[in-house]
Amino acid sequence: MKIVQINVTYSSGSTGQIAQKIHKFLNDKGIENHIIYGYGPKKQSGHLSIYNYWTTHLHSFLSRYFCMQGLGSLLPTYKAIKFLKRINPDIVHLHNIHGHYLNYPLLFYYLKKRNIQVIWTFHDCWPFTGKCAHYSEKHCMKWKTGCFDCPNLSTYPDSKYDGTRRNYRLKKRIFLRMPNLHIIANSNWLFGEIKSSFLKNKNIYKIYNGIDTSLFYPRNREAWRKENKYNQTDIIVLGVSSVWKKEKGFDVFLKLSTVLPDNYKFVMVGVNEKQLRELPDNIYGILRTENINKLAEIYSGCDVLLNPSKEETFGMVTAEAVACGIPAIVSNSTACPEVVSCCNAGMIVDMDNLKEVVDALLKLGHTNAELKQEISDNVREKFSSTVMCENYFKLYQSISIEKSN
Predict the structure, then answer these.
(1) Are strands 235-240 and 181-185 parallel, antiparallel or unpaired?
(2) Which residues belong to any copy of the Glycosyl transferase family domain (predicted)?
């Protein structure tokens, strides 16, 4: 059995880390596997970077002005296909194929022609919409019947021109013609959304994302607090995002910083330089970090995670934080409640109701050590990367057996 994964990044970001975990798991099993990726180290043994400066920037231009995300990057995609011809994999496992690095019609034409088994993990909603990776903030459900007049043009992948009708029809035609397409939803919520899309009759499975429990576990709570000069009586509310914007709840933190008692302090990881300069004194901003150990130390040193995002297909940040022993407060939207509810790991609130959020923070800010350990154990048992990889491996095996028959 040979496996090739394809993802926008090699090891950074949540999808890159997931691809890496699967790669290591398969290596330990002695199974040949490779990763084709857009962004990451130029040369990585056994893997292929298809990044090209000029085609990436041209693809970005086509996407931003003509709504052509996934329709550029011909040369990099030919390079990926050449690699696939040489490896001749039994299964191609797709992750995020948008991001200005790959031409999906060309790739799917090759995969269909060669009758290759395809597993596709949906990490967002882009595969079944005319453009949008997320749509819940705008309450747009046009994707159920056919996208047009997009109300979400300014969000990723943003575009000046509305090409959503064309994109929707193209995706529907290409993806439905794939005979060996197996789709993975990473939450119950996303599973339900896919079942309402044009892909509803495809093979759809649910496999939760996994976190590395050898890295995300309760660290020394006092060490990080002492290093950053916090008092023992301070209640530290943490927010983590790769990009902070309105949809991720940036404004919620600003509002809360003015209404909670003085011993409530705020930490926001992932802010940019401009946001860092504009934060009030009681919010400590930290630039985005890829240092997992540092992030786990921050999680462990805080008292409660606040994840105001209303657009999550799983919620890796929530799972990571709870695995480190702090309870979480999440929005009652999309997949956000799943980690919390299934592990009894915090509270689910209406993020538009400031009083409800404040009451939750006042309650969970004083969670005792015994309960923190209990929620950490629950999350580590249900959402570990080992559990995730074993589930993917079982799927690989069943698909390989089905193919051989």
Answers:
(1) unpaired
(2) 221-381
Instruction: Tell me the DSSP string of 81-92.
Output: HHHHHHH--SEE
Q: At how many degrees (to 10) do helices 369-382 and 336-343 cross?
A: 110
For residue 94, the tally of other CB atoms under 10 A from its CB is 24
The whole-number mean pLDDT for each consecutive block of 10 residues of the chain, a chain of 405 residues, reads 96 92 96 96 92 97 97 98 97 98 98 97 98 93 96 94 98 97 97 98 96 91 90 92 83 91 94 90 89 93 94 92 94 91 89 94 86 83 92 94 65
Tell me the helix, strand and coil percentages in the chain, rounded to 5.
45, 15, 40
Domains of the chain: 3-210+385-404 (3.40.50.2000), 221-382 (3.40.50.2000)
CA distance 7 to 33: 14
Model confidence, pTM: 0.93
Crossing angle for the helix pair 74-87 and 53-66, to the nearest 10 degrees? 120
What is the side-by-side strand order in the sheet with 328-331? 283-287, 264-271, 235-240, 304-307, 328-331, 346-349
Q: What is the largest CA-CA distance in the chain?
A: 67
